Every structure is written in C-alpha cells, then in structure tokens.
Amino acid sequence: MSKRWTLGALAAVWLTFSGLAVGQTGTASVTVQVLDAAGQPLAHAVVQLDSAAAARASRAGSPQRIVQRQRRFEPDQIVVTVGTAISFPNQDTVRHHVYSFSPAKRFELQLYTGTPATPVVFDRPGVVVLGCNIHDEMLAWVHVVRTPHFGQTGPDGRLVLHGVPLGVYELAVWHRRLPEGVVVPRQSLRVLASTPTQVVTLGTLLAP
Fold first, then answer.
1. What is the mean pLDDT of residues 117-127?
2. Are 73 and 128 a contacting pair, CB within 8 Å?
3. Residue partners of 109: CB distance under 8 A and separation at least 6
4. Which of 45, 126, 136, 203 is positioned for an S-S bond with 34, CB 3.0–4.6 A?
5. 15: confidence class by pLDDT, cuts 50, 70, 90
C-alpha cells in the first residue's frame, strides 16, 4: 500500500501519520519513493528525518574523500553528518582550485596538486555547492545533516530508512535539480510501527 504526495514549486513534502500512543516505543522502517513530474523515478534525492532527539543522536561521520579525477569530482554528491571531515585529493595532472561560497560552508583550497594536508570539516547543516575556480564544468554537492536518519534514493527513486525510533520528526526531501534559492519547507512526520510507502513527486526541477 502506498500514499501519494505532490510537491509544487517549493518542493515541499508533507507526511503526517496518525497519533502515537503514549509510552509506545520501538523502531520502524520509513520508505520514501521520489518521482519527477513525469512520474519517473528520481535518483539521488536526499531524504532526512530531523528531530531534537535525532540531533542529539547525530555524530560526525568517518572521514570522507571527494577525488578530482579527469576534471570531475568523484563522487559528485555526498551526504554527511555535521562535523564530518572531507579531504579533496587531486589525482589530475593539472592543478585545481576547489571552493564553495555556500552559507553552510565557505572555503577555498587554492591551486594545488596532490592532497591538502588539512581536510575540510563541514560543521553546519545545509547544502554546500562545490566548484573549481579553474574548470567551471566541475560541480559537486555536499549535503550536511544533523540526524542519523538520512540517505539518497537509488535508481528506482526509493529509499528505506531502517531503525527509526517511533516518534515525531520533520521530513525534508531535496534534489540538486531544484531551482537555486528554493527553501524546502518542513512538515511534521509521526513515525509509527507500520507506515505506508510515501510517494513524493518533485514538480519543479531544472533540466538534467
């Protein structure tokens, strides 16, 4: 059984379940499927569940790497928790100048080869767009969250979050093809022991 939701220009997802019995404990799996306006599965959508308890449970992840290879960032999208350090090895024969002007993390790694000695710590939640000051075609996205309940949809547009404690959360769905400057609103989500698959349609997306 599934429940369908449609996101308009602000790409909001509003997922609300019925009330949770007082004292009820345990965990559940939350399944979300994300589609585009044509009803096709949308891969690489970021889904996150936020709450005060989730923020307290969040920890910095293990160190990550975004490699520069053949004038591309690999991977070109990654989701990490607040406090996670990312290094940026340059495996090309040309120098790169990695930077971000995003409010969630502003930094510059000026022209270099090899691996900078100090990784970049992503210490605020939000979307960080990466670029190269030399090669304009190089783009990547770091989505920083303050919750252990997050992930990206696969080729079928689906994501299953396992082991989510029962309770009230805020759920947000983001995709890098959303128009620049769009703020995705948040909606209360009450997770129960049995939850239907949530089908989310992102109606306003830029062309691939």
1. 97
2. no
3. 88, 96, 97, 98, 99, 116, 120
4. 45
5. very low
